[in-house]
Amino acid sequence: QVQLGESGGGLVQAGGSLRLSCAASGRTFSNRAMAWFRQAPGKEREFVAAISWSGGSTNYADSVKGRFTISRNRVKNTVSLQMNSLKPEDTAVYYCAAERAGYGLGSAGVAEYGYWGQGTQVTVSS
Fold this sequence. Notes:
The protein is mainly beta. Helices cover 0% and strands 49% of the residues.
């Protein structure tokens, strides 16, 4: 069974940092682009960051550019999201995702991703 499992969420004050991790099990995702999305209450799921299958290119939402960094370890089948200078508007459930097809460059489109984790809550207090 294919599974993506997120960890590292929690409660942090504005200006603080968190590091989210996502581990894949059941199959390898080393040839698939990986991404992080988030969903706040009452809002649609939105793109946060993505990394290409090779790890050579990254893509960020404007709202997190310069504050968040996505990285991956293709050998360990993990992807991470380092979040710095957190703001209350970053509060959401964060989801790890793997693309459907493979060998992608890291699209921002939610429809490109066919494998999803269960999500981890990030709460930023003001």
